[in-house]
Specification:
- The protein is an alpha/beta fold.
- It is globular.
- Helix content is 34%, strand content 24%.
- A 9-stranded mixed β-sheet has the order 6-4-1-10-11-12-13-14-15, with helices on both faces. A 4-stranded mixed β-sheet has the order 3-2-8-9.
Length: 306
Amino acid sequence: MVKVAVVGSYGAGLTMRLPRSPDAGETVSGGVFSPGPGGKGSNQAIGAARLGAQVSLLTAVGDDDFGRAARALWREEGVAADHVLTAGAPTMVGFILVEPSGENRISIAPGALDELDAAAVESFHAEIAAADILVVSMEIPEAAVAAALREGRRAGTTTLLNPAPARPLPDDLWPLIDVITPNQTEAPVLLGLQEGHGLDDGELTRRLCALTGGAAVLTRGGEGALVAQAGATTRIPPHPARSVVDTTGAGDSFTAALAVSLAEGRPLTEAAHIAGVAGAHTVTIAGVIPALPTRDQLNALIGTER
């Protein structure tokens, strides 16, 4: 069984499905509300566990009902959460507006995540060192992101950075990243480009690859993905979704499947294809956790392509 270490966020997702998103100062009625667990780190950890990996998670939650529900969820999903920090601030909350098209808008109050620091990451070193791959996302303080990537490099563990939400990275962090996985919106932010920069997806992916010295995977929604590594760029065609119900968890599902596939020793292009299949499955189901595929579900979808 492959081992995956995850350093990232947990938060309660408070989702409202609306006929349309409101304009400034406007109230839109007719919504349907559903609360549930979220946070990129937790979603990715659960996604990897469902695909058969042994997963250890580092995040921070509050001493509140949301935090207790999170710990119960991780026990149920088989995610090791021994090092999760109980912070003084409340558990992160994300407010998610979902339109009928499946597009979403998200606002986050970080709360407990602001207390996740380098010392907490250092206490997670043994789990990082024992892992086949380390997955880091950016809903946590930059100090924790940096500490995690440094611990991964020190341990010789493959590092995968899901740079969401995107912000420019310090120069000294780029060489610590083996694989970076932005989407089309995040890539220009990482590169410090302004709107109207004029670069196509291929050039964005190659520039990101050059900065890491490793590889870059640019996710493109319904257009699939681009993989840049070792001077070559490969287009990964999309796996068609039966329908688009909710895109909220697609990126986390993609990241989890990519990480597990790489941990299993698959080539990056094959891993990105498998990850695309996982993401396509996820958009067909409402809610993030219910939509994360199991290994059997993923294998069945891959089997339909043959």
